[in-house]
Amino acid sequence: MKTNQKKAWLYLAPTIIFVTLFSIYPILRAFGMSFQSGSLIDLTWTGFNNYKYIFSDPEFWLAIKNTLLYAVISVPVGLAISIMLAWIIFDKVKHKALFETTFFMPYVTSTIAIGIVFRYIFNGDYGMLNFLLRAVHLPAPDWIDDPAMSLTTIIIFGIWSSLAFNIVILMGALRNIDPNFYTIADMYGASGKDKFWRITMPQLVPTIAFLLTMNIIGAFKIYTSVYALFNGAAGVGNSGTTAVFYIYNKFQTVGTPGVAMAATVVLFLIILFATFLQRKMMKKIGEN
């Protein structure tokens, strides 16, 4: 028994060392740096000064507000659309593999590349989106250069970006549902709506819980989309700034790593709390 335990620890050692060096240590290091000020090579202990600074910084609160709004809107809307599209493909479409490949392609494509394409789509003067809106006599806002539209633009892009991964995972979950459930439901004359809500959705709860967790964490860490859409900025007047963009700006551009790490710790706690609430909610739904 002891020999087996020693072998197990021996096999696990590379993974434990890797996780410690590249996951646990950076978290502890970030927490320690959040109480220090100065340049990266000359940090001095200053206590809670960095936390006092970020909590009194309007830009930090704007970043947190934008991040929360992005997560609250884009995650459920994106997941709902993904479930609808996955169900339509699974139930109605014959050549499912082709559609799955088509939907999954954006997931393996660079976000920067896609963001550049969408920057042209969202262009207020010659963008495709405004061309279509004008064609049906709807308002055509300036998606990129209007500060009031920055967050809306990011949310729309975020919803579209989330579909690829969500649909492929949901398609896999739909295939694992026992077809006998639907056969019995047909024998009793169940409608398509009844089969979806009474068979499909309950079977998808574990998968939806997983996707919610992944999407929420991803939403709170949004940075690349903002960078790509607004050409390296965060919208006009930083109107589209997010928590990670704020952290990057304070660390790389302004050169205040202590402030950046204080914001990182706060963001980490927010993600932890949001994930905890989401898992508790999904657990209650699964029990009902």
Automatic annotation (TrEMBL):
GO biological process: transmembrane transport
InterPro entries named among the record's database cross-references: ABC_transporter_permease, MetI-like, MetI-like_sf
Membrane association type: Multi-pass membrane protein
Stretches that traverse the bilayer: 9-28, 68-90, 102-122, 148-174, 204-223, 258-277
Keyword Nucleotidyltransferase: no
Protein family per UniProt: Belongs to the binding-protein-dependent transport system permease family.
Name the UniProt record assigns to this protein: ABC transporter permease component
Organism field: Lactobacillus apis
Origin organism lineage: Bacteria, Bacillati, Bacillota, Bacilli, Lactobacillales
